[in-house]
Amino acid sequence: MFKNRTEAGVRLAARLRAYQGRAGALVLGLPRGGVVVAREVATALGLPLDVFLSRKLRAPGDREFGYGAVTELGNVRIEPALVEEAGASGIEQERELAFQRSEIELQKRRYRGARPLPPMKGRAILLVDDGIATGATLLAALDGLRTAGVKEIAVATPVGPLQTLIHLAGLVDACEALETPQRFRAVGSYYEEFDPVSNAEIVGLLSGEHPHRRPPAIAW
Fold first, then answer.
1. Which of 101, 64, 58 minimizes the C-alpha distance to 83?
2. CA distances from 141 to 7, 25, 44, 94, 144 (A)
3. Does the global pTM surpass 0.85?
4. Which residues lie closer than 8 Å to 146 by C-beta, 6 or more apart?
5. Which one of 24, 50, 56, 133 has the fewest beta carbons within 10 angstroms of its own beta carbon?
6. Percentage of the chain with pLDDT > 90?
7. Domain that holds residue 14
8. Residue 145 pLDDT level (bands cut at 50, 70, 90)
9. How far apart (Å, rounded) are the C-alpha atoms in residues 38 and 8?
10. pLDDT at position 63, please?
């Protein structure tokens, strides 16, 4: 159990000391909650921080259930078994994909303004989220980062289902998680405080606003 995302990020950073100060390494947080955790990781390790946008494709009857995802690099990943479970028709999938692409464009302007995504080619990436459920958004992010030519990817999260993390470990160079329950509940159930993260909070985190901690470098 974690007190909040900030505490989880501090604890997670302690497991990632091998990346401390590593030249060319970059911490990417998945919004929204993943950016809070990533901020603590980046600060502790002395690495630059940015956000990577990967949006869940939601089931028609359950907006918390994701059957795939689309990223800011344009790649789409859909899991056929999850589509069947979600009961999403072809038309519903097309509508959801269009909606999430429009949301990505809005988020890009909110979080980065005119600044582009940092160069990815040849870099070591620490991809951080506040928790993993189905892994749909994270898997799409991995596809996009590989397309962008990254050299190395480490996935880091405070909590995720054991079987999902075992699967992820076979797809990346490193996979770190603090808690790996076999019977996984909702991500928020592993936190004492799990309040929604606003767009304004993310902008503040990316700009280095924090009352007590040294800000990480921004990956221009």
1. 58
2. 24, 17, 23, 20, 5
3. yes
4. 153
5. 24
6. 87
7. 5-54+113-206
8. very high
9. 10
10. 85
Query: Is 64 part of any domain?
Result: no
Scan for tokens 């470990």, then name that residue. Answer: 169
Sign (positive/negative) of CA torsion 210, 53, 116, 169?
positive
The arithmetic mean of pLDDT across residues 202-213, rounded, is 73
Query: Helix 5-14 crosses helix 33-45 at what angle (to 10 degrees)?
Result: 40
- 8 Å CB contact between 166 and 31: no
Whether 22 maps to a domain, the answer reads yes
Distance CA 142, CA 135 (A): 10
Higher pLDDT, 26 or 219: 26
65 domain-assigned: no
For 173-198, the pLDDT digits (tens) are 999 999 999 899 999 999 999 999 99
**Residue whose structure tokens are 């940092």:** 118
Question: Is the residue at 92 inside a domain?
Answer: no
Q: What is the CATH number of the domain that holds 134?
A: 3.40.50.2020
Q: How many residues does the chain have?
A: 220
Name the helix (H) or strand (E) containing 12: helix 5-14
Secondary element (H or E) of residue 70: strand 62-71
Residues 193, 200: Cα–Cα separation, whole Å:
19
DSSP state letter for 69: E
